[in-house]
Write a structure and sequence with these properties.
The complex is a heterodimer. Chain A has eight helices and three strands; from the N terminus they run ββααβαααααα. Chain A is mainly alpha-helical. Chain A has a three-stranded mixed sheet with strand order 2-1-3. In chain A, a hairpin with a 5-residue loop joins β1 (about 15-20) and β2. In chain B, α5 (about 120-125) packs antiparallel against α7 (about 140-155), α9 (about 180-190) packs antiparallel against α10 (about 195-210) and α13 packs antiparallel against α14 (about 265-280). Chain B is an all-alpha fold. The longest helix of chain B has 22 residues, at about 320-340. Chain B starts with 19 loop residues before the first helix and ends in a 6-residue tail after the last helix. The radius of gyration of chain B is 26 Å and the shape is elongated. Classes of the chains: A mainly alpha, B mainly alpha. Chains A and B meet through α5, α6, α7 and α8 of A and α2, α4, α5, α6 and α7 of B.
């Protein structure tokens, strides 16, 4: 399955590169859109992107979304307000997917997507107690009681 | 709530009662220190030329491995370079398949990135979530402490004299550890010292990391530098406003009002004034009162106008106090007129 990006001017052919996910799916993305990824940008600069670029740590499902994100953000003349709304919709996903977005954006060095996804997680963490954080993200506290006590003491200055 | 005596007539030096918009626009909207407790600083992120795949896998292995063989005492705190923060496990060989979605196993630099504009209390809660988060956020906790000291130096608390140089030094150290709060405060120090380029650089760093205070300050700086960059200012103010930063909302409203950096739009301006006012920004309350009073951007509504003017007056806005006083006085006159035998009106 390959997803082609939507283009507004069919007259001039757009330069495309191909990305290959961990599960073997290939995706085409306009070079302009791919430049938002610093990783892909350097590969394009080094002429390494003429063959499909393997991304063994990103699944097809996530890669499809990343391509969608980059394509959307490469559009010219997009209204800032509606783009923000689109972004908000983009990250309204379950936690595992958000997690995957973060890792993909981190790996591909897409600052806008990383910012977006990290901000989303940050907003979930803000204002929560450690127990609530455990519940939201399904993580376990791995502290010993002594470690936890030491950590609390370390932060005692804030109550001065 | 502040209560001040109602000023007598024509105490104001301003030429006309109805110059509020212009006066409001000329007012210095520079984020005042006390309203802007969040500091940000330049992070030396250092995410550079590493082999990213190896880095990714290293982190996953690191976080899972370290949690099992971690020593009972946390490692000594101290200056932690970005390199040492990442190099916690031996380099890996072949890449692994996608790891399980364990938020506890997020790479340290990502965790630090998530918490980059956290307040002290949020940082504390996040640090107590699990060991790997605690480790990842250690530099930010150090930054918080440096921020705290920086504020003390700046304002001369605890019996010590104010020391701007030490304050800046402290903020910059916090900035290096990645806190956008420290970045913004360091930038503010630079700006107040007249080193505008250095300030803007710090604001820009904080802004690009998504810190609303940094975005707001950067927007304002873009308007105030020579030559001014209104379009860029709008971009940053919009980001900060959407994130809920009240000062940015007010500033954005001003720009929309005067058509600075984008086409003048009274309705949009009034919308943002209202948002900022609801968020507690006093100058915005005053301007909302005027919008309601004159029907500019909002439908004319005397009751709302008076309500907002009173709220601004209660919060100490001097022009609002004057206006509010006048409206009370004229209300009193009307009331007295009702009972007077020769009722004039």
């Amino acid at each position: 399955m390959s997803s082609s990006s939507s283009s507004s001017s069919p007259s001039c052919p757009k330069k495309m590169i191909t990305l290959k996910s961990s599960d073997g799916e290939t995706f085409e993305i306009e070079e302009i859109a791919a430049l938002q990824s610093k990783t892909l940008e350097s590969m394009i600069d080094e002429n390494c992107a003429s063959t499909p670029v393997p991304l063994p740590n990103i699944t097809g499902k996530i890669l499809a979304k990343v391509v969608e994100y980059c394509t959307k953000h490469a559009e010219v003349g997009a209204d800032a307000e509606s783009l923000r709304a689109w972004d908000a919709e983009f990250v309204s996903v379950d936690h595992p997917t958000l997690f995957d977005y973060i890792l993909a954006a981190n790996f591909l060095e897409i600052p806008t997507l990383l910012n977006l996804a990290c901000q989303s997680v940050a907003d979930m963490v803000k204002g929560k107690t450690p127990d609530e954080i455990h519940k939201i993200f399904n993580i376990k506290s791995t502290f010993t009681p002594e470690e936890e006590e030491e950590l609390r003491r370390e932060n005692q200055w804030a109550f001065d | 709530m502040l209560r001040t005596p109602i000023p007598p007539f024509s105490r104001k030096k301003s030429s006309s009662r109805h110059q509020p918009y212009a006066a409001a626009m000329k007012q210095r909207t520079w984020p005042h220190r006390s309203d802007n407790p969040r500091f940000s600083a330049l992070p030396f992120d250092g995410c550079g030329a590493d082999n990213l795949a190896a880095k990714l896998v290293r982190h996953h292995r690191t976080d899972r491995a370290s949690s099992s063989r971690h020593a009972s005492k946390p490692p000594p705190s101290g200056l932690r370079s970005p390199a040492s923060r990442r190099a916690l496990a031996p380099p890996s060989g072949s890449p692994e398949p996608a790891p399980s979605r364990d938020f506890a196993a997020l790479p340290y630099d990502v965790l630090a990135r998530i918490a980059v504009s956290f307040s002290q209390s949020n940082l504390r809660a996040a640090s107590l979530a699990c060991r790997s988060w605690s480790e990842a956020l250690r530099p930010l906790r150090e930054a918080m402490l440096l921020l705290h000291w920086g504020k003390r130096f700046k304002h001369g608390r605890g019996g010590a004299r104010a020391n701007p140089e030490k304050a800046l030094e402290s903020f910059l150290k916090g900035a290096v550890r990645g806190s956008t709060l420290a970045m913004v405060d360091a930038g503010l120090m630079y700006w107040e010292m007249g080193k505008k380029e250095a300030a803007v650089e710090l604001y820009r760093k904080a802004a690009s990391l998504g810190d609303p205070a940094g975005q707001c300050n950067l927007g304002i700086a873009c308007l105030q530098v020579e030559p001014s960059k209104p379009e860029e200012a709008i971009k940053w103010l919009q980001l900060a406003s959407t994130a809920g930063h009240v000062r940015a909302q007010y500033q954005l409203a001003l720009c929309l009002h005067r058509g600075c950096g984008l086409d003048s739009n009274l309705v949009e301006a009034a919308r943002w004034y209202l948002k900022a006012a609801e968020g507690g920004y006093v100058r915005a309350m005053y301007n909302v009162a005027l919008c309601y009073s004159f029907g500019e951007g909002l439908h004319r509504n005397r009751r709302q106008a008076r309500s907002w003017m009173k709220r601004a007056a209660d919060r100490g806005h001097s022009k609002a106090q004057f206006e509010h006083g006048l409206s009370l006085f004229s209300g009193l006159q009307r009331l007295m007129g009702t009972f007077s035998p020769s009722a004039g009106g």
